[in-house]
Amino acid sequence: MPDERGPARGSVHPSVHVDGEVVATKRVGGYRHLTLTAPGVPERFRAGNFVAVTVAGHVARRALWVHRVRASSAFGPTLDVVVEARGSGTAWLAAQPVGARIAITGPLGRPFALPKDAVSCLLVGEGYAAAPLFPLAERLRERGCAVSLVVSAPDEARLLSALEARRSARSVTVLTADGSVGQRGTVADHVDDLVRRSDADVVYAAGPHAVLRSAAGAAERAGAWSQVAVETPTPCGTGLCHGCPLPVVGEDGVERVVRACAEGPVLRGDRVRWDALGDDR
Amino acid sequence: MSADLPGPVMVAAGCGGTGRELEPYAGPDGLVGLDLVTRSITLDARAGGPGPRVAEVPGGLVNAVGLPNPGLEHFLATELPWLVRAGARVFVSIAGSTMGEYADLARRLSRAPGVAGLEVNVGAPDEVGAGLFEVREPYHSASVIAAVRREFPSDRPVLAKLRPDVSRIVEGARSCHEAGATAVVIGNAVPAAFPDGRAGGLSGPAIAPVALRCVAEVHRALPDVPTIGCGGVHDVRSANAYLDAGADAVQVGTALLHDPTTVARLRAALAPGPRNDSRPAPPEENR
Ligand SMILES: Cc1cc2nc3c(=O)[nH]c(=O)nc-3n(C[C@H](O)[C@H](O)[C@H](O)COP(=O)(O)OP(=O)(O)OC[C@H]3O[C@@H](n4cnc5c(N)ncnc54)[C@H](O)[C@@H]3O)c2cc1C
Ligand SMILES: Cc1cc2nc3c(=O)[nH]c(=O)nc-3n(C[C@H](O)[C@H](O)[C@H](O)COP(=O)(O)O)c2cc1C
Ligand code: FES
Questions:
Q1: What is the pLDDT of residues B210-261, one digit of tens each?
Q2: What is the predicted pLDDT for the residue at A13?
Q3: Whole-complex ipTM
Q4: Chain A residues contacting B, CB < 8 Å?
Q5: Looking at the structure, do residues A134 and A270 belong to the same domain, yes or no?
Q6: Which ligand has the minimum distance to the alpha carbon of residue B48?
Q7: What CATH number should be reported for the domain holding residue A94?
């Protein structure tokens, strides 16, 4: 698939490290949505980028998908992130009130590659990780692509609201593992069928490794391309530490280990060595 | 310190990516004039260890990154020329599994254009550098330094990077200096364990007092041996602690992972020139 991401981050659109501020927060189901100012970050953002944020008292940084950017607001350009409080860092982030200042580095990572032509695209996201698919859907629609969006979650509380995405997507499918809303089942259960029904040329996936792997597999079986947004622990997020190994197969067919934060987090699904990656997330 | 020695602020080995990733955060001059130590380069490519490679602990990180690097050939063809074009003063960190490998690395790097100096990694915490030449004994480190020194032009610095082990550091610094090291870097990550017991190296603010003690001991015992403090430097105060203890320069590692602009800020605050202790303290950044 043609890759229009251009050179890797660092040359054309250098990232910035800035002092951001929480300007709005709201709880939605099991998640906390934060709207942040981060001068220079929204302006440089492309769908699939993430930001690295500093958590008070912690040395390692926390990566967050950018869910949405606004070019202008009462606070100037802003970005939205969706936080699921799980461990120490995400719990701290979810508790930050309006006015809190947070050091933010971004945008980081290779974004989703966009197709040149107006093709059919299936976007599959699970939990908070569906966040980067929403700005992707907008960009694809601007290019005339037919977008089918699937949001999935273990249960309703962890389902990212797809209300706003209905503007960008031709169809929206909701899946919950417990059947509390939408269709019952997991991405793995439904993805082959969804790829077929949407007649997808490209499958984009974001979520736990199992979701990415099943989406990449379904794409391959259907002869479609896939782009997966991989989460692995990213101690720095900026490419400096080599602490985020991601096993891949290069274009030359050679197996290697790349940095998830710098050479990823978005990669072609058929390039990831899933068995070596494991099921952590 | 003489003119061709680095400082007062350097990027520590393995914490500056390939250099490119640091550029956006390096300040108005980019990498120009920045004293940067590369990640340790080995003769053959190394994939590095399995994940998780880094764990967060209070005040620092435990890492077992395992020296991932593309090998000397590829480094010379791609990463080094880029760094040189970007204007960095490149100190190539080298690691070998035999004395001959260290010598080989030094010989080939001596011919590569733009190498300002070498840093010999003789103090990797156990297992982080699995397969490296065993250099725990000061005598062994000194032999490695001597082998490197024989192959590398004497007008360019060779730095010996040692583990901050206070019981051995004076002996190690002395023997490496006698073997031809221009300065000793004190130190590397401290041997430690991940929460699950796997071996790794502890870095970050938590180890600053450990490395500081080593710098102070070396300075007291060997006032003529130039030292470079490395371990937990993250702000002006922590950098000055090393300089005040007698270090000629400091290296910044883990702090860059926490805030990639750290080196730019410290370079601006500690610009070279005679140290003047009556100057107003630059504002401290809060962490
Ligand atoms: C590219 C990317 C995008 C992400 N986007 C989001 C998002 O939009 N919303 C959200 O809530 N979370 C997101 N995460 C996960 C988030 O970054 C947290 O770091 C992680 O879930 C654990 O952080 P913690 O402080 O809550 O947990 P702790 O248990 O306190 O974390 C301890 C350490 O382990 C690391 N760690 C452990 N597991 C993971 C993991 N699965 N992924 C990353 N780091 C891990 C942490 O970074 C930290 O250094 C994303 C991760 C990545 C890599
Ligand atoms: C992620 C990471 C990678 C490192 N890689 C190397 C390396 O390749 N060679 C080396 O000599 N030291 C390496 N180190 C050690 C650092 O250069 C430094 O000596 C140590 O971390 C202490 O300094 P700090 O507290 O400022 O990080 C690494 C440290 C970290 C955290
Ligand atoms: S997280 Fe540090 S290099 Fe990727």
A1: 999 999 999 999 999 999 999 999 999 999 999 999 999 999 999 999 999 9
A2: 63
A3: 0.93
A4: 10-11, 14-17, 54, 58-61, 103, 105, 232-233, 235-236, 238-245, 256-257, 262, 278
A5: yes
A6: 2
A7: 2.40.30.10
More confident call, A125 vs B287: A125
Same-domain pairing of A100 and A139: no
Q: Which atom of ligand 1 is nearest to the CA of A58?
A: 49
> Are A155 and A195 members of one domain?
yes
Contacts of A11 in chain B (CB under 8 A): 20
B100: Cβ contacts below 8 Å, ≥ 6 apart = B147
Domain of residue B256, residue span: 9-286
Q: Which residues of B touch A (CB under 8 A)?
A: 14-18, 20-25, 39, 47-54, 56, 59-61, 63, 65, 68, 204-205, 254, 256-261
A140 and A253 both lie in a single domain: yes
Ranking A136-145, B82-91, B264-273 by mean pLDDT, the lowest is B264-273
Q: Is the CB of A50 under 6 A from ligand 1?
A: yes
Mean pLDDT calculated for residue range B33-51 = 95
Q: Residues B220, B61, B249, A238: what is their CA dihedral angle, to the nearest 10 degrees?
A: 180
Domain housing A50: 16-108
Q: What is the pLDDT of residue B142?
A: 94
- Name which of A51, A42, A68 is nearest A109 in CA terms: A51
- The pLDDT value given to residue B254: 98
Give the C-alpha distances (Å, rounded to integers) separating B22 from B26, B30, B119, B174.
Answer: 6, 9, 20, 34
Which-ligand-closest: CA of A56?
1
Q: Looking at residue B130, what is its pLDDT? A: 67
Q: How far is the CA of B262 from the centre of ligand 3 (A)?
A: 16
Half-sphere exposure of A180 (CA within 13 A, CB side): 10
- Tell me the best of B254, B256, B262 to mutate to test the pocket of ligand 2, counting ligand atoms within 8 Å of each CB and taking the most: B254
**Do residue A54 and residue B59 have CB atoms under 8 angstroms apart?**
no
Going from the first residue of chain A to its last (281 residues), give the mean pLDDT of each consecutive group of 10, the final group possibly shorter: 43 82 96 98 97 97 98 96 97 98 98 97 98 97 96 95 84 95 96 97 98 98 98 97 96 94 98 88 65
Helix (H, G, I), strand (E, B) or coil at A211: helix
| Alpha-carbon span A233 to A223, nearest angstrom | 31
Query: Sign (positive/negative) of CA torsion A122, A159, A52, A41?
Result: positive
Average pLDDT over residues B83-103: 96
Q: Confirm whether A11 is domain-assigned.
A: no
Quick one: average pLDDT of B45-55?
Answer: 93
Q: Which residues of B touch A245 (CB under 8 A)?
A: 48-51, 53, 68
Q: Is A210 helix (H, G, I), strand (E, B) or coil?
A: helix
Which residue in this structure is represented by tokens 């979520």?
A: A207
A280, amino acid identity: D
Predicted pLDDT at B1: 43
Do the Cβ atoms of B258 and A17 come within 8 Å? no
Q: Are strands A202-206 and A120-126 parallel, antiparallel or unpaired?
A: parallel
The answer as to whether B147 is a domain residue is yes
A46 to chain B, closest Cα gap in Å: 17
CA distance to partner chain B, nearest, from residue A182 (Å): 36
Q: What residues of B are in contact with residue A103 (Cβ under 8 Å)?
A: 259
- How high does pLDDT run on average in chain B? 91
Q: Which helix (H) or strand (E) holds B138?
A: helix B138-151
With 60 as the cut, is the pLDDT of residue B40 above it?
yes
* Residue B215 covered by a domain: yes
